[in-house]
Specification:
about 675 residues; six-stranded antiparallel β-sheet; elongated; alpha+beta
Length: about 675
């Protein structure tokens, strides 16, 4: 097989073709002029010859230029873009040498250089990974520690922008006030208490902490907080605890006490008056009747208020959750340690109680029964009873008298802690216990109700245990105009929609919208918006065939105005990024008047960014761009709003360094470039 010509040989052939073609055109013109010489005269014949030669040379040069542009110019542009993707965006995989085969050895040389770069990167990555492994492990342990702190923790800059928050902070604020990196803390919390606490600390020099009481931005929750300044500047750490439930419990306690004093004070005063009259010797049936009526009123009030007190006291005392099986296993251990036999059974329940206190109380009662009655074998059953559960301690032998049980309940459960008695344990659990005979057999029983229990069902959603942070945000300058801000410093929301069709002006609607946030040059994994949308019209089968969303799937989902209002809050203050943005933005902007907000965000389009990097002649579909940049879109995620939004975000993050390599660094630089590609797609920032 003959060797392919080199690039220099190809260039020689191009210019040789121009020369040969020019000579042919001149010769043809001279021949034609000579043929016409006898008929038209010398002047016109040679003018005609020159014109023919000129047009021939122009056609040949144009033809050669087209071939040169296709085989050399465009091939060089493809090769440069591929090399930039390797150098700046970290794209993996070998270069496509076949696409630049007309460049001779330049393509294989570039491929070899890219392979060497990949090997060097891999070796460097291995070395860095080995050196930073210990630091990564320590970082992971620190993140785990911070994530498990029960209080909500925020780290904010002096401008009140969030640079760190943990999982409990998200839980405490609730869905209506969810935080986000580089967002203002005042999007989640009321502004005045936070500002006042911060100003107090700055005035004092930050030597101590400041306590504050602050509500969430939507007013749904009241939080107790403590703020402390950072040593490195005016930034601060804010810890929060939800005191809404505490305040409600205190308010309920105050209402109950007011009611107790009010309802006891009046009959007590009436009783005093009646007794004073009786002491004066004016006894009659009317006074006796009044006395009995007031005594009955007082007794009923005391009984009712006592029941209310028992009911509400459980809300004032925070008791842990204990599995019934664990409590029964603890009883077995205590009985075995005391030399007693125990047969135990329990339903699948989660109890709200202090397991240690209940186990100690039941074991103490069993020990006293064994001591006084000679019983060595017991049975315990734990079963659901309405909203709570009931624990039965059974044995063969004489029932326990009430007086004996009361005496045992007055004894300390542990001699080293004399204040903790059986009676105090019952009081802390707002319950009682009593003895009775076992029905249908000889034996005794002590019954102990537990007020709150639930059956074990499907596992609940896991509590959010993560931290989200970027400490560089504490020191970011925030006074630059948008046009002067580098692309790497932008806060962006990359989004995508799935719709009923392609014509928003003719009634097509959104059926799914999703977005992810990019802060400080990286995608924030925990900050995601994703919702199905009820479009208010049937979804055509041809659209379902593309995105897989059916009418049944969107039933009960937010309406289009509701979903867009929530998305607007999610994207507030960010640059919007989409692939083919005019299409998606049309669905958002047509509902602005209805939801009372404007989607006037700055907009970037990855189609236009791809055109800047790769040129207009290349394909700029999301699949083609992802393939060039080495981005894998899972098959089940393609044509879902979230999957396409994530792929678009990854493409944007890889295009940013490629643009920077061409000197396109700021948002203003990008706008100047993308507007050169107006024939491809309209820029929405005009």
């Amino acid at each position: 097989m003959a060797e392919r010509p080199s690039l220099r040989q190809r260039l020689l052939l191009f210019f040789a073709a121009i020369l040969a073609g020019s000579l042919v055109a001149i010769a043809g013109g001279l021949w034609l002029g000579h043929a016409r010489l006898a008929a038209t005269g010398s002047a016109s014949a040679f003018v005609l010859a020159g014109a023919v030669a000129a047009f021939g040379i122009a056609g040949i040069v144009t033809w050669v230029w087209l071939i040169f542009d296709e085989h050399v110019g465009r091939a060089l542009a493809r090769l440069a873009a591929a090399m930039r993707a390797q150098a700046h965006a970290g794209a993996d995989g070998p270069l496509d040498v076949a696409a630049v085969r007309h460049l001779g050895d330049l393509g294989p040389a570039a491929a070899a250089l890219a392979a060497a770069l990949a090997e060097t990167r891999a070796a460097l990555a291995d070395a860095v990974a080995r050196e930073t492994g210990r630091l990564a492990a320590e970082k992971a342990r620190l993140e785990t520690l911070l994530a498990d702190i029960p209080a909500g923790v925020f780290l904010c800059s002096g401008g009140h922008q969030i640079a760190f928050y943990n999982g409990p902070a998200v839980e405490i604020l609730g869905p209506g006030a969810a935080p986000g990196l580089n967002r203002s803390l005042f999007d989640s919390l009321r502004e005045a208490p936070v500002r006042h606490a911060h100003e107090r600390l700055l005035a004092r020099g930050g030597a101590e902490a400041a306590d504050l009481l602050v509500a969430t931005a939507d007013g749904a929750r009241l939080l107790s907080g403590r703020m402390r300044l950072l040593d490195a500047g005016p930034g601060y750490v804010l810890t929060l605890r939800d005191v809404t439930a505490d305040l409600a419990a205190h308010a309920g306690r105050d209402r109950l006490l007011d009611d107790i004093f009010d309802r006891i004070r009046r009959p007590a005063a009436n009783l005093q008056t009646v007794i004073e009259v009786m002491q004066d010797g004016a006894e009659d049936r009317a006074l006796t009747s009044a006395l009995l009526e007031e005594v009955g009123t007082l007794a009923r009030a005391i009984n009712e208020l006592g029941a209310r007190y028992d009911e509400e006291r459980a809300a004032w005392i925070s008791l842990p959750q204990v599995r019934a099986s664990d409590l029964v296993d603890g009883l077995r251990a205590r009985f075995e340690a005391s030399g007693l036999a125990l047969t135990a059974s329990a339903e699948d329940l989660v109890l709200r109680c202090d397991g240690f206190e209940i186990v100690t109380l039941v074991a103490t009662l069993a020990t006293e029964i064994a001591r006084t009655g000679g019983v060595r074998a017991f049975a315990v059953s734990l079963a659901a009873d309405g909203a709570g559960a009931i624990l039965d301690l059974d044995w063969q032998g004489q029932p326990v008298p009430v007086s004996a049980l009361e005496g045992w309940l007055a004894l300390p459960l542990d001699p080293s802690v004399p204040g903790v008695t059986g009676r105090s344990v019952l009081g802390s659990h707002a319950t009682e216990c009593w003895p009775e005979s076992r029905p249908g057999s000889e034996g005794g029983r002590i019954r102990l109700p537990l007020r709150k229990a639930r059956r074990i069902g499907p596992a609940a959603a896991p509590i959010l245990r993560r931290v989200t942070y970027d400490f560089e945000l504490l020191f970011k300058a925030r006074d630059r105009a948008l046009a002067e801000t580098s692309l790497a410093d932008l806060t962006c929301v990359v989004f995508d929609t799935e719709t009923t069709g392609l014509l928003p002006d003719e009634g097509d609607e959104i059926v799914q919208i999703a977005g992810v946030r990019i802060v400080n040059g990286r995608r924030v994994a925990g900050e995601v918006f994703d919702t199905l949308v009820a479009p208010g019209r049937p979804i055509p089968p041809k659209s379902t065939a593309v995105h897989g969303i059916t009418d049944a799937m969107v039933a009960g989902s937010p309406t289009v105005p509701e979903a867009l209002a929530r998305f607007h809050r999610f994207a507030e203050g960010a640059v919007l990024i989409a692939h083919n943005a005019p299409f998606d933005m049309a669905f958002l902007r047509r509902r602005e008047a209805e939801i009372g907000v404007r989607f006037d965000h700055p907009v970037l389009d990855t189609v236009l960014l791809s055109a800047v990097v790769y040129g207009q002649t290349e394909s700029h579909s999301l699949d083609a761009l992802s393939e060039r940049l080495g981005i894998l879109i899972p098959e089940d995620a393609r044509h879902t709003a979230l999957g396409d939004a994530i792929a678009t975000a990854e493409a944007f993050l890889k295009l940013v360094p490629m643009l920077a390599g061409r000197g396109i660094v700021t948002f203003g630089d990008v706008l100047g470039e993308v507007r050169k590609h107006g024939r491809l797609l309209r820029d929405l920032n005009a």
